[in-house]
Amino acid sequence: MMRLTVQEVRKHYGPDPVLDGVSFDLRAGQRAALVGPNGTGKTTLLKILADREEADAGTVDWVAGTSVGFLEQHPEFAQDRTLWDEAREALRELLDMNEQAEAIADRLSQTDDPAEHRRLGQRFDHLQQELHRRDGYHVDHKIERVLIGLGFEPASFQQRVSQLSGGQQNRLLLAKLLLEEPDVLLLDEPSNHLDLEATQWLEDYLVTSQQALILVSHDRYFLDRVATRTLELFCGTVDCYPGNYSAYQRQKAERLEVQRRTFERQQTEIAKMEDFIRRNQYGQKHAQAEDRRKKLQRIEPVEAPREIAPPPMRFAPPSRTGDIVIRVERLSKAFQQPLFENLTFDVLRGEKWGILGPNGSGKTTLLRCLMGECPVDSGRVVHGTGVRIGYFDQQLRCLDEDSQVVDAIRPQHKEFVEQQRRDLLARFGITGDMAFQRVDQLSGGERNRTALAMLAAADANVLILDEPTNHLDLWARDALERALRDFEGTVMFVSHDRYFLNKVADHLLVVEPGRFRVIDGNYDTYLNLVRQAKAVAEDEANQADRSVSASQNGEAGSKASRASRKKRRFPYRKLADIEADIHHREDRIETLHAALTDPEILRDGARVKQTTAELEQTKLELAGLYEHWEEAAELGG
To answer: How many whole angstroms separate alpha carbon 602 and alpha carbon 285?
Structure first.
């Protein structure tokens, strides 16, 4: 089923078009990645599709009845509401339907008029069917699932929206959009403000959803997992490719090769014809020259290859260091709580180390400790012979905001004339008049590439980078990956970009609960180890279950083996006793939910933790009682 048809959409800002004839369609269930270099109009196109902006020309046709959800970039909430209440508003339609069904049920119980009873009954049946279809009987469970999935702790559910950080408010916007469940989602950088665990949850959610979506993201791992189609926006138009981002890259390379050959053949033929005409237009072969001139006029020009050229990033060959570049011995650091303890590892010359972990886990602090910029509580960091460190700060504080770009990258340790600096900037995609702009006039991506050029000017043999892919588009990220892989020195970097970690890292330092873990390999290596550990744990759990089952069967003896009825999982109990326990647990859960809204408890972190833990345990016990009741009802006690 077609959901959307876009035909010849155009949009201008100033004399040059941003969108210059965009056409594509979207079918139900398709998940389309919208990719293109920074500044090509991806967000503008999404806003036009969401009716937030008007196109100058062209049509955007949504199939009648299609509901569309657009992820806004600037949150606007009723500030006096709690996180839970604001999320619940996303399901207002379902909540209203529940209230209507309850009201109709009351009226049905009171009316004696057969016609009115029939009319109300039909309306009640319709509401029940719709509530069942949309899972409207489990509203609170849906809200809890999405909020926890996107990284909210249960203890924060009753927090005022006005008290949430900007990142938390953006996550709440995403949560509300997912809860609304529109037919089509328009998502612009949805994984911004999400940690790795929440990003993986969102990937799983979108992959299993039946919704169609158009997704803009710089997270290539995310695009690979989610997208089933790729729309490339470049030079104002869209080219369509089946498959995810990696499939798009392969097909794009093949398509470019064909385009280049076709274009070059035609250019060669045109050059030959023009040369013949020029040499013979006044000679004996004048008639032939005139014939070729007419043929030349009739030639339909082949378009130049639609090539998106990445900046040719490159770091200078480094000076040689000792074999051990950085030695870390029993390193510990804490602020309000420990960040790392007894951390020990060696970084050898030429290795590429990625550091992966959640926000606030001490990754940036570790980098500063390794450079000697932050004092450690215990242990030591030893630099090898000849080590010269270059540091990329994700806040880009190294750049003088008031300087021209060409002056901002001037190194202090050597003579580096203006033309050399301009050539270096061009390697990182800062060309032309951009080199003479002030730093504070640059976009995020341009500032990032300027800082990388400054790093390249430092002639370092050890590069330490903190989130170097921030604000870079997909092509700049590819270029940086190649530059770091080709760099013969040593690299340590913090990144949430799993694709980048896979391409660059040969070692990982992974922050896990209560420890740092060293992995010999890249992100895929780490994932395989996690899966293996999970499989081993599940296998051990299954073996334990089988052992318990065998023990119970042995106690039952031959009588159980002769029984034709289903084996018991639970000990014999009367239904009435189980029901009494169920009611007790349900009452306790209501009490605990109420406790988590009590301001006095919310001010006490220990009590919140204790109450939350008891709530989760009681829910588990209740689920077991439900299963026990079902078995007892089936087997007669």
So the answer is: 95
What is the number of other CB atoms lying within 10 angstroms of the CB of residue 361? 18
For 603, other C-beta atoms within 10 Å of its C-beta total 9
pLDDT in tens, 591-623: 877 776 666 665 565 676 677 778 778 877 877
Amino acid at 59: T
Q: For tokens 């590892």, name the residue.
A: 345
Q: Is 555's pLDDT higher than 60?
A: no
Q: Is the domain defined by 324-521 classed in CATH 3.40.50.300?
A: yes
22 torsion bin: left (phi>0), alpha (psi -120 to 50), beta (else): beta
Please give the span between the terminal C-alpha atoms of the chain, in angstroms, as a whole number: 51
Q: Are the folds of 68-247 and 324-521 the same?
A: yes
Q: Which two tokens stand for residue 513?
A: 């609960």
The CA R_g of the chain, rounded to the nearest whole Å, is 32
Q: Does domain 68-247 have CATH number 3.40.50.2300?
A: no
583 pLDDT tier (thresholds 50, 70, 90): confident
Cβ atoms of 433 and 405 within 8 Å: the answer is no
524 CB neighbour count, 10 Å cutoff: 11
Nearest to 501 by CA among 510, 514, 489, 512: 510
Q: Which residue has the tokens 């990284």?
A: 151
Residue 127 · residue 111 · CB < 8 Å: no
Question: DSSP letters of 169-233?
Answer: HHHHHHHHHHHH--SEEEEESTTTT--HHHHHHHHHHHHH---EEEEE-S-HHHHHHH-SEEEEE
Among 98, 103, 164, 109, which Cα is nearest to 136's? 98
